[in-house]
Amino acid sequence: MKTNEDLRKDVMDEIKWDPQVKDVSNQISVVAKEGIITLSGVVDSYGKKMAAERAAQRIAGVKIVASDIEVDSVRKKTDSEIAEAVESALHWNSSITNDQVKILVNDGLVYLDGTVDWEYERKLVQRSVENLVGVRGLVNNISITPKPLHPKGIKESIAEVFKRNAIIDASSIVIETTGSSVVLRGKVRSWVEKKEAEEVVWAFPGVLMVDNQIEVDMNVLAE
Fold first, then answer.
1. Looking at the domain assignment, is residue 149 inside a domain?
2. Which residues lie closer than 8 Å to 14 by C-beta, 6 or more apart?
3. In this predicted model, what pLDDT tens digit does every residue of 108-146 receive, in sequence order?
4. Residue where a domain terminates, one of 71, 98, 114
5. How many domains does the chain have?
6. Residue 14 is part of which domain span?
């Protein structure tokens, strides 16, 4: 089992390795305690803040990532300039129907609203905005358009996909469904496995809410 220092070092090494954030790795501090990682420091873009968080989440043994990283961009932009950049980024992304998304920018914080057909589109919109110059933060309030439930039964269909997935140990996850809502429980080996299970569920038509209660248990790694 990893000690707190082992975990802290692994996260720091991953941040230093990540091409998107390694140039500011010396500006980021990492504290590890019982699987909980706290990141702090100052970076020059929101995209780098998110990259640091994702780097920490990739490490085996990490249960939760708390980010206190602040964004202080040296290339300041007005809210109007940021809004125009967001609209342009969405317009040129062929996977996004940008007329479904509403944009509000206030003091560098971007608020996204509207509806899309799939969860992957919702996340794609967010990724398109993250790395724009001047963005200090992002609130994604985009919702998913209701669709008919999967004809085979959502629970059985999710279980089948879990079994095919190379990352997920299907035997360790319990699936509960109520209408268009899905609850996931159990214990897995890493945060990446937990997130992969959630991504699989969001890919099913008709799913409007996923409550991911899966725990990351370092003891599972040793089995």
1. no
2. 55, 56, 58, 59
3. 999 999 988 888 888 889 988 998 999 999 999 998 887
4. 71
5. 3
6. 4-71
